[in-house]
Structures are given as structure tokens and as C-alpha cells.
Amino acid sequence: MSLRESASAVQAIEAWPVPLLQALQRLALKQKSPGRHRQPVAVIGPGDAGEAECAAAHAVAHALAGAGMVVICGGRGGVMAAASRGATEAGGMAVGILPEDDDANANEWLSVAVPTGMGEMRNAIIARSGVCLVAIGSNLGTLSEMALGLKWGKPVFELYGGVQLPGAVPAADVNDLLAKVLACLLA
What we know:
This protein is an alpha/beta fold.
């Protein structure tokens, strides 16, 4: 199997439909090649997200990290913590770009915490760093990251968003979101 072997990774991927599993395996092969994505996938969303948003962030980050992608986020709670936990549990890396000048508020699942002291201006670093942006849930911070990503020509995918930004690609559910992100990463 091309995806990283771990008990939680095997349990999590068993739930994905076969076409998604095949795409994840193709991504895992790509990530082992010279043509791999060196930029991470940005998983963005509210720090006070609900259960559905957090479950989606965990699942998507787990799948992508298990296929060799690094996940970058804001490094705090909610969607950010769920994505960090998913990536780490899959044996991958989670990078958090923190607004504070220390890592006191970093979530416990980060592989790397980057305190910026920039406040919400750190959203620009997250948006610029991602090969694509995966927005799960919505608040003003998430919308700012999405808008910057779109301005810079980054593919932006969204699930459970409250506001549809022109150019952002909406997803119907977690499977649809992952399928669209994988299509982008494998193009």
C-alpha cells in the first residue's frame, strides 16, 4: 500500500470510496517522486468551529498527510487543531503559522509552530504558502485567507462556508471536497 501504514490511517482510509482511495494512492506515488508538491496544502477554518467542520478537517488532513502532503494552518483550535491532529495521526506533518509572538496558544498536534507576532496578518502567509486552500467553515479570518488565495491565483475549495466568494469551488460533502482537492493536486 502506498499510503503510510498506521492503525489509525488504515481505519480512516477504509471509509473512502474506491475512486478516492485510488487518487490518494496516485498522490502518494507523486509525493515520492521528483515532481512532488513541495508546498503544503492550507487547511483553513474557524477556531471555534463545530463538530461537523472539525470532523471534515480531520478527515481531509488525515487523508492528504497520509498520501505525503504537508498541512499548513493557523495553528490554534477548531478546524486548525482538527487538521493538525489528522495530519499528525496519519504520520504526516502539520505546520502552524501563529498570530502571537510565542507558541503558548499552539495546538498540541503541530509538528512545527511558527510564532509570527503578526496577528491576523499571518493569514497572508498561510494563503501564500499553500499549493491550494481548503476552507472548512467560515469566519472573517477564513474569508480573508480565501480572498488572498484567490487574488494570488491559488485554487480554493470550500465546505460549510457561509459566504460564496467568486472563484472558490464549493463542495457538497467531505468526499466531494477531497475529490476536488485531489484532482487539483494530481493535475
